[in-house]
Design brief:
Rossmann fold; 6-stranded parallel β-sheet; alpha/beta; 6-stranded mixed β-sheet; 2 domains; 316 residues; elongated
Length: 316
Amino acid sequence: MRRREFTALLASATAAWPLTLRAQQSTMPVVAMVNLGTAETNARFVNAFSKGLEEAGWVEGQNVTVEYHWLEGRFDHLSSLMADLVRRRVAVIATPAGNYASQVAKAATTTIPIVFGVGEDPVKLGLVSSLARPGGNVTGYNFFNAEVTAKRLELLHALVPKAVRVAMLVNPANVPVADTTSRQAQEAARAIGLQLHILNASTDDEIEAAFDILARDRPDALFIPADAFFVSRRVQLAALTARYRIPTAYPTRENVEAGGLMSYGPDLLEMWRQVGVYTGRVLSGAKPADMPVMQSTKFDFVLNLKTAKRLASTCR
């Protein structure tokens, strides 16, 4: 072969490489991961999700494409997002830590597989027919956050035994979680003789406004329910509770690591990993209808000793 012909052939092949690579990528199945938090505050959860996918034989960028949709508390964007995912026929919709997102996804499609992670009974949420035989196109993981509300409130009372008036921060935009958790917390508070005062907050500014009220009313303690928005705002919440010296109970370890006083709840890293595993199994051909809903078996009580010492005078 002449040198000029060889050079032309080499240049042609080189130019084709990016096109070939793009063609390979375009044939990969697409997983849409939807969460109402932020990318910055969920980095290690994403790592757990990716690990689960890999355990099931799927590696992002090699044989699967993962789209991350972080809504940052904008519940009003869910319906349009789900409609777009259905229109594009993504392979799987994954909704870890998302009661409402899971419900909106199910309402949007009966054919695209959905793998959820929810803190309430998925049967009561209308996501599955039963835990053992979900039926339909939906399955996932139940991490019992709603069910441990009473226990978390009891632990807060044990840490602050003289507490009588407890404030509770609720995200009204997350309607299913807000309603259920508020009802359960009020019932638990009455059972142990606490007065529960509910404050609403769905944005950073509303959190600041709620703490202005707390500074004025001076409750004995604060209770933060399980909500992806509050987990994503854990640094802001820890700073405000430290400023106003108010003992606070949280649902996740992540809140305590950010400076909060205490938490009691399930292992969320394990939930994200298992959602990844189930997503991978669906990609490999498993049917959600035949995949039993997984459930949390481990619950952790976490105490920030540094914060506890700083609050010692308040907690006596």
